[in-house]
Request: fold
Amino acid sequence: MKENQSIKLAVLAGEIMLESGAETARVEDTMLRLMERSGLVGAEAFSTTTGLFASATGKNGEIITMIKRISARENNFKKVAGVNELSHKFVDGKINTAEALAELEAINNLRPYPLIIRILGASMASMCFAFMFGGTALHALGAFISAFLLQIPVTFLERKNIVIFLRNIAGGIIGAIFALLFVNLAYIDGVEYVIVGAIMPLLPGVALTNAIRDILDGNMLAGSARIMEALLTAIAIASGVGVVMGAWKSIFGGVLI
Amino acid sequence: MILNIFLAAAATIGFSIIFNIPRKELIFCGLAGAGCWSVLTLIITLSPDSRMAATFVAAVVVTIYARILSTLRKMPSTVYMIPGIIPLVPGTRIYNTMLYIVTGEHAQALSQGIEALAISGVISIGLLAALSLPRWLFSFERNKTK
Reply:
């Protein structure tokens, strides 16, 4: 049935976007535009951070509704950009529903950058931040190494869908351990440059930005959920770092700073 | 100073790779980070006590840049915004908060923690301000882009 296909198209588009880290306002907007372009009557789209609904009235007055629960989440803006482009093409009438569905499947199968590239990207960012915050080349090297070593287990936990809180505590702990080891082996001061650099890639930039966009759009529910996510992530990282610093201080004495 | 701007660009590109931003847009994300860092350090150098104001202005600049580019390059504006604001995130203050808690200096910890929260709040207000500018300001080429 034509209406069913149209709803499916909208829900699949919304699902891909939400799973890839788009804000709910964009998800709802895209779904609504896709459904309206398909000529559905009484189209409604609703999305929170963890699921989405689409509903419309069919030709004979029957009500079609579809719900999708979103569990896995990653940051893959290749997919967000892809769906965004596709929705414009569909609204402009350049492709029909069947073609759009096929193209969505292709977008859904877009691979993220290779793991090693992403880990190196994070390490490079850490290295630069250690420099920018006033560290020396040696601190930057330490940040690079610690970030590299902490990204490996963190990415692994992310793949296993481990709760975000635990993942970030682990990140904070591992980053702090390697940073402290590095400065002590290299006989330098300024462990703060190394630790801050190493944990920067874990900080919740996406959650914070999306929270603002959601709240601005009047989507308070999704917005406050994201703010909680950002806050919890930051607290988790800080706790991880704090545990290690506390333990280090009580084992080795006052060589912390 | 110049070196730091390059580093900001490199750091932002590193972040963009974690977020899987399409390859063609990476350089524009780098520019967002570099611009953000330049605005921040420029204002702080001019008047050292204005960290909050500098963060606000930098967040506004990044958001406006992202909205203009999103129209020009037909991309969602978040693609440029998210990596662009990363240099503003108060990493050092979060670290200091933890350090002071561990060393038992609670008053210091509180002040650093509140400052970290305030900076995050200011980033948010900056984004809010620039995002609530009417859409027609940015729709010079095509008005369906968001």
Observations:
- DSSP finds ten helices and three strands in chain A.
- Chain A has a mean pLDDT of 88.
